[in-house]
Design goal:
The structure holds 2 protein chains of 2 kinds.
Chain A: H1 2-27, E1 39-45, H2 50-54, H3 57-65, H4 68-85, H5 97-105, E2 109-112, H6 135-144
Chain B: H1 2-17, E1 43-50, E2 57-68, H2 70-75, E3 82-89, E4 98-105, E5 108-115, E6 123-124, E7 132-136, E8 149-150, E9 156-163, H3 170-178, E10 196-205, E11 214-223
Antiparallel strand pairs in B: 1-2, 2-10, 3-4, 3-11, 4-5, 5-7, 8-9, 9-10
The chains are: A mainly alpha, B mainly beta.
Chain lengths: 178, 224
């Protein structure tokens, strides 16, 4: 009886060892990835099309290398000039050119930690960016739509209102590739 | 007359600003040249939204290498010298307080964080002391069954080719900018239909992101 117990104990120990060993093999995340070295910035973005629309070719790389807390100081003047070029006076959020340029020139996504997260859904504004958000229409409307959103109606929406594939309700949410 | 002036202005801006592309596709001239050693670094879009399947979690998406055909997607990879970094400011000063750092090596993606960065700004080292999650990179041929890694804290990670979720009648927009059209068409035509990106998706419990009511988020690619 004792012998069997010992044997059982030994087997348990061996089994446990193997289990622990295999656990370690799976969970030890320190040995197989090289995490050394210093990485240097190449590209940066948050809100869609900001660099595209508001930053000239000569400064695109500079914009990508400027940290967000310094963007406004470095680029707000350029953004104001672009808005002036677009004939901008005020948008549907009630922002004058200075206020709108300040918002845009600091290129971060503002994300609410509770509730709806969307670029714009008709009610919530700049509380995140979801996959299905029609961000281009939102930006066109804010840039060209004037104080009431009704100016330049031919320029405030592109009439592409959804993605070409349906999104998934489960992680990772994006559609399979073509 | 007003429209004419406006379009003239748009044209001026367009010429001054060079060719307009998309969300951020091909907007990093330093990394998108034909012979660039940093091709995997060109960010197309960044998304941040509450998880559709669990409202206690936040999802971050960083897409790179835009406008890929299916053929190009089949051979696309995440370069091993590239760090994909989600930056999170939870104190309202637009300086990152937390980062989620992703690297891809030997067919696997691993994410580190959310964790305080070693230093803020344009140079990064990988901080390995925070949460870690890992998954195999999903291959193009098996993309219908995405590989999802989940760690003990409930962080999920995915990396692989996906349909580009961005949509825009860019062709028409260019025509408007070029002065050959005066307005968008209806219906519009999605220039990004049928194209893919390389996508990194990370879902994390909101409890790992601090207690702020609003966070500020941006994506960065860095190389060594």
């Amino acid at each position: 009886m004792l012998r069997i117990n010992n044997r059982a104990t030994l087997l348990s120990f061996i089994a446990a060892s193997l289990f622990l060993f295999s656990c370690k093999k799976d969970d030890d995340m320190s040995d197989s990835f090289d995490t050394s070295g210093t990485y240097t910035q190449k590209d940066q973005m948050a809100r869609p099309a900001i660099n595209t629309v508001f930053v000239g070719t000569a400064k695109k790389d500079q914009f990508n290398m400027t940290i967000p807390s310094q963007m406004s100081a470095a680029f707000k003047t350029d953004f104001l000039a672009k808005l002036a070029g677009f004939g901008y006076t005020q948008n549907a959020l009630g922002q004058n050119a200075d206020q709108f340029a300040s918002l845009l020139a600091t290129d971060v996504l503002n994300v609410k930690m509770s509730g709806t997260t969307t670029f714009f859904d008709g009610t919530n504004v700049l509380t995140g960016r979801a996959l299905a958000d029609d961000v281009i229409d939102t930006e066109l409307l804010l840039i060209f739509g004037g104080p009431t959103g009704t100016s330049n109606p031919g320029l405030t929406k592109d009439n592409v209102n959804a993605n070409d594939k349906a999104f998934s309700s489960t992680f990772p949410y994006l559609a399979t590739p073509w | 007359m007003k429209r004419k002036i406006l379009l003239g202005s748009v044209l001026c801006v367009a010429v001054a600003g060079g060719i307009l592309f998309a969300a951020d596709h091909i907007d990093a001239p330093a990394v998108t040249g034909a012979n660039s050693a940093s091709l995997g670094s060109d960010i197309t879009d960044v998304y941040a939204f509450q998880s559709p399947s669990d409202n206690s979690k936040m999802v971050f998406v960083m897409n790179v290498q835009g406008l890929m055909s299916p053929a190009a997607s089949a051979t696309a990879t995440f370069p091993s010298n590239t760090l994909y970094e989600i930056n999170i400011d939870n104190t309202g000063d637009n300086v990152e307080d937390l980062v989620i750092q992703a690297i891809v090596q030997n067919g696997k993606i691993r994410t580190y964080g959310p964790v305080a960065p070693a230093a803020t700004g344009i140079s990064s080292t990988v901080v390995t002391t925070g949460p870690v999650a890992e998954a195999g990179v999903t291959g193009y041929a098996s993309s219908a069954a995405p590989v999802v890694g989940t760690n003990t804290q409930g962080i999920k990670v995915f990396a692989g080719p996906r349909d580009d979720p961005f949509f825009f009648d860019l062709t028409r927009f260019k025509e408007i900018i070029g002065g050959t059209q005066t307005s968008f068409r209806n219906p519009g035509v999605d220039t990004f239909a049928g194209t893919n990106v390389m996508s990194i998706v990370v879902e994390v419990p909101k409890s790992l992101l601090g207690t702020a009511g609003t966070i500020n988020v941006w994506g960065e690619t860095k190389t060594k």
